[in-house]
Amino acid sequence: MKLMRLSKNKIRTNGYFVKRLRDSGFVVLKIFNRYGKHDPRRWTVLVDPSGSSVFITCLTNKESLNDVIFEVHDSGVNFATNYSIQTDSIEVIINYLIKKGVSNVADKNSIYIKNQLNNIDEEG
User: Fold this and answer.
1) Are 16 and 30 in contact (CB under 8 A)?
2) In angstroms, rounded to a whole number, what is the distance separating the alpha carbons of residues 65 and 99?
3) How far apart are CA 106 and CA 2, in angstroms?
4) How many CB atoms lie within 10 A of CB 34?
5) What is the DSSP string of 47-68?
6) Residues 14-72: tens digit of each pLDDT
7) Is the alpha carbon torsion for 95, 101, 105, 109 positive or negative?
8) What was the pLDDT predicted at 9?
9) How far apart are CA 30 and CA 47, in angstroms?
10) Could you state, in order of their start, the residue ranges of all structural domains in the chain?
11) pLDDT at 104
12) pLDDT of residue 45
């Protein structure tokens, strides 16, 4: 008899999150992913660095066990201060970014595209 393993919620993994945003046209830079063991923050990315410059931080187990929350920061320009999204769907994140005017059309002259910084996938 085979035991079925529960699949990990992919939206909480940095690689999956970044890949899906990039596949949707966003320029995304991985900023940090080495928070402390007991810190609910898992990783932080920067979306549209030469435009809206939106930081998104993934938090797990912040308010309850197995929850996933994304804190969105842009110093209050398009998003309210301390804005967070609780979802298991990357489409919710993508649609909200587009609705708030975050560009998902990469500028071909951008330093991030020219130097292929949008495609760097460092491990760790």
Assistant:
1) no
2) 30
3) 45
4) 8
5) ESTTTT-EEEEEEESSSSTT-E
6) 999 999 999 999 999 999 999 998 899 999 999 999 899 999 999 998 777 778 999 99
7) negative
8) 53
9) 9
10) 10-119
11) 85
12) 97
